[in-house]
Amino acid sequence: MTTNLRIAFLPLNDVAVLAAARERGFAEEEGLALDLLRTTSWATLRDRLVYGQVQAAHMLAPLAVAVTLGLSQQPAALAAPYKLGVNGNMLVMAKDFAAALDPDPASRIADPLAAAHDFAAAIGLWRRKPVIGVVHRFSSHALMLRYWLASAGVDPDRDVVLRVLPPSLTVEALHAGEIDGFIAGEPWGSAAVEAGLAETVAVGERIWQRGVEKVLAFRENWLEENPETVDRLLRALARAAVWCDDPENHEALAQLLADPRYLDQPGDLIRRGLSGQIVARAGEAPISHPDFMLFSREATPFPWRSQALWIYSQLVRWGMAEHSPENAAKAGRVFRPDVFRRALAGSDMPMPGASMKLEGALASPLAVGSRKGDLTLGPDRFFDGRVFDPERIEDYLAGFVQVR
Amino acid sequence: MRIVIIDDSGLRATVLEEGLREAGYDDIHIVPPRGAFVARLERMAPDVVLMDLGSPSRDTLEEMLTVSRALARPIAMFVDQSDEAMIGAAIDAGVSAYVVDGLRKERVKPVLELAVRRFNAFARIQAELDEARNALSDRKVIDRAKSILMAQRSLSEQEAYALLRSSAMNQGKKIVDVAQALITASDLLGGGL
Fold first, then answer.
1. What is the pTM of this model?
2. Do B97 and B148 share a domain, yes or no?
3. A51 vs B91: CB contact, 8 Å cut-off?
4. How far is CA A333 from the centre of its chain?
5. Quick one: B109 and B180 in the same domain?
């Protein structure tokens, strides 16, 4: 018997696994018919999930934490048993702003610390506070941008203007001069570069080498009441993710995502992010970033609780959430490694033995304890070398210099 | 009660505004979600903000509502958890409503109910318009195909139409599709009509 599932998404490269699950038969093999509902704002995606118009959503990981903590309109306990991707964001700035930075985009991207200091100097030279588009207050992009700016002593709430706008409006806003740059998931950064409006200034993968991006979010009670359906969906997604990670499939995947039902953007632009061939300035040769975006390898979809807690630490750091043991516990519980294990126990997916780890501690790939299969975790450092210990959130937060 | 409608579609906003005025609300403003709309809205200090759920600018609006220092009272999404049917109807109709803190739900509910009805009415009008527009362009296509047949095969108008109809029936297609194929073929062959 086929089970129908409605899942809301925003047009972004990292909807790839959901799209592939539907279009390449992985969902069908599990007896699922996926109805993927394109949405134009995170607010509407959130409302459709919270009020039960969809069973699941392609959601910004920090938004899932924020909704659970009651920070984004109607509070609701959300559960994320699966990560739809890691990395994939890009900061682009208008060409005249970028002119004040290192003229070589490759060296900017390779050294985010130097780029952040150059950026801080460029703010003073700009005719007004630079306006940087972010896709949502509770987005990985906004948290990463804040982290990066603050490392150079820039107060993201005082020294720049962060303007919220959905990814699909970023290029238009840049063109109209309403923003001076933006950080968003692909293909929107590449679209701005290709239009000759902007240059790449930083890529997410160099700020945090394994940065959490979108998760598959459910309402917690629905997830608990439908374990069998959830498990089938996770198995379908895990197989779709293997397909999406394979470079041989990137062309087909780009064409699939280019469809008007998904991104409605040129396949060539979409492929850049999928295969990590980043054109940082229009007309120049691409710069290779093999880890620009991950779907499956290194057990990418595994929802490490420590990652939900890192998000929480950043919400506290920026005054968006009150720190308390209850809030920390609530935030950590949003990520559901237990459900992931249950669903994928019988699959090929290598299964981490632990549910938490230090974040940012690996400078090189490391083979780790796995209940099944070989599991090598990729390097996951933050560009400033800080390590997040989920057991010691206060110490971690105390380590940041207050920029205010 | 000051009501601001954020909407790009002139027609939908008008349909909604008319309904609200008929119901006795008279402090109504329409703001298209473009440029510095958030700053305009902030200055207006609305009690209720109505917005299309499908508008990509909802995130921008919510951010303003979160960080604004200019608004005297916070504004949040109107949600009456005791009335799930209302929430469902609003989402189905594509209405989102933001309401100033402290406004009683008995005062807001009629506004929201009206917005839902008007949004649904607008969706019907839109569908009818699309249908009428399609019908109109269908007729033009068929007329052109008929004149091609009349010129090329010296048929009367009735005979030309009968030929189109029987071809469509034989091929299991719509008349307009057969007519379109004929026009394309004629253009390719330099029929010049």
1. 0.89
2. no
3. yes
4. 19
5. no
- Tokens found for residue A262: 């998904």
Residues A192-240 pLDDT 10s = 999 999 999 999 999 999 999 999 999 999 999 999 999 999 999 999 9
* pLDDT tens column, A272-288: 999 999 999 999 999 99
CA of A164 vs chain B CAs: smallest distance (Å): 5
A74, A137, A169: residue with CB nearest B63: A137
Is residue B24 within a helix (H) or strand (E), and if so which, with residue range?
A: none
Residues B102 and B29 in one domain: yes
Domain span holding position B59: 3-128
Domains, chain A, in order of start with CATH, read 3-86+212-267+293-344 (3.40.190.10), 87-208 (3.40.190.10), 351-398 (no CATH)
Q: What sign does the dihedral A168-A169-A175-A177 (CA atoms) show?
A: negative
Q: Does residue B96 share a domain with residue B46?
A: yes
Same domain, B117 and B177: no
CB-CB neighbours of A270 under 10 Å:
26
Residue A360 falls in which region: left (phi positive, over 0), alpha (psi -120 to 50) or beta = left
A22-31, A205-214, B1-10 — which is least confidently predicted? Answer: B1-10
Give the count of Cβ contacts less than 8 A between chain A and B: 61
Q: Tell me which residues of chain A have a C-beta less than 8 Å from any C-beta of chain B.
A: 40-44, 47-48, 51, 53, 72-74, 135-137, 163-166, 168-169, 176, 178
Of B112, B128, B144, the residue that ends a domain is B128
ipTM of the complex: 0.92
Of B53, B54, B59, the CB nearest to A165: B59
Q: Is residue B150 part of a domain?
A: yes
Same domain, B41 and B80: yes
DSSP B47: S
The three-state secondary structure class of A243 is: helix
CATH number at residue B77: 3.40.190
Give the span between the Cα atoms of A290 and B129, in whole angstroms. 50
Q: Is residue B37 domain-resident?
A: yes
Q: Measure the CA–CA gap between B93 and A315, rounded to whole angstroms.
A: 34
Q: A169 to chain B: nearest residue by CA?
A: B56
- My answer on whether B18 and B90 are in the same domain is yes
Alpha helices (runs of H) in A318-347, residue ranges in sequence order: 325-334, 337-344
Q: What share of chain B is helix, strand, coil (3-state, %, to 5)?
A: 60, 10, 25
Residue of A nearest to B96 (CA): A44
pLDDT 10s digits, A346-360: 888 889 989 999 999
Token couple for A13: 């490269």
- How many Å apart are CA B116 and CA B86, to the nearest integer? 9
Q: Which of A199, A198, A193, A187 is nearest to A270 (CA)?
A: A187
Tokens of A72: 């984004």
B158 and B71 within one domain: no
Q: Where are any strands of DSSP class E within A45-87?
A: 56-60, 78-83, 86-87
How many domains would you assign to chain B? 2
Using CA coordinates, name the residue in chain A closest to B34: A173
